[in-house]
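So, can you check what follows?
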Amino acid sequence: MTYSVPALTGHPVHLMPGDKVSGAEELTIVIPALNEELTIGEFVDWCKEGLAAAGVPGQILIVDSSTDGTPQIALQHGAEVLRTPARGLGRAYIDAIPFIRGKWIVMGDADLTYDFRELAPFVQQFRNGVEFVMGSRFRGSIEAGSMPRLHRYFGTPLTTWLLNRIYHSGYSDIHCGMRGLTRAALDKINLRSQSWEYASEMVLKAARLQLRTGEVPVRFYKDRAGRVSHHKRLGWLSPWIAGWLNLKAMLVYTPDSFLLKPGLAIMAVGLVLSFALAGGPFRIGRIVFSLYWMLLGLTLTTLGYSCVQIGILSRKMHRLRPGFVRSFERILNYDRGMLLACLCGCAGVCLAAVLVWRYVQHGWKLESLSYSAILGLLLIILGFQTFAFTLLMEMARRILDERHER
């Protein structure tokens, strides 16, 4: 059968193969494709073989932005096609969400580098109650020449190790392109990334949402003869750009992981130094604690407090740990925050006023250094920071509540 495919427009267009009937499915395979006419036909056949071997009815949905014969070939082999403008890999998955009919979802690439004939391990994980399933090339097999050495032995192991340390997870390959999740998990993750960084966003949010996760071995093959990978099509900088985008996702979605606890520790050290020196210098053994130590204390306190504020705000904005945010807001709500800010500010002004009074009394010059006045300056800074932080938390609450009501 010959299919007529419409030109790309600003809106997705859903195309069905002639013998396909729309209805609920158990598993949906969602695959973005861009000019993959060399592999797409065999890939769809692989998907059918994998569904049959797993014993599940399924939907094969190709999210296509091609200018070649990819969509026609996909339709001829029995896949559904969603024609969308090329706006990034993450955006392709976002565009596909309204058209997904399965309760389970498997994602990947249409280039025959991942073996979609082996869907059974993913299905078994879903049947066991797993919500997010990662494929692992390192626990499966990697064909010679399929992965650049820099990615295989440095980039992927390093970033996987970092994520496992932060979230106490046990992944072996966080950048594997073949992965699965339930439809409910996809809704919880609320995918936002438009480009390559979608992969990191999914893994990070799955960890933050404490989804039940699993990992299955997958086979990873090198590109077929005549096919050029998308990274190579975009130039030598493309892998580095993808890496940078994934790093951005890790930073944007997890600032509390490297700011909150370190910030609390830094602030605690700063407060101890600042208050201990408020009465003047002192000695412990051979170490004399004086002005420079107090300035260090002031610096550590303000830096640490800023880290804590950003960490809490990130948890509030991302809504990935709502229990923590609710507990924090019960302790420090708007009224208490404003009261604390006022008390800090007033106490700081009083301590600093003593220095100003002495300055005036001694003919507009300082006769001695006032450590308590430096503590007063710190309290003024903390008071203003608390005032601004309380306002931001209240604004974030209102904005998020308005979005939720919509």
Notes: The CA atoms of residues 82 and 297 lie 59 Å apart.
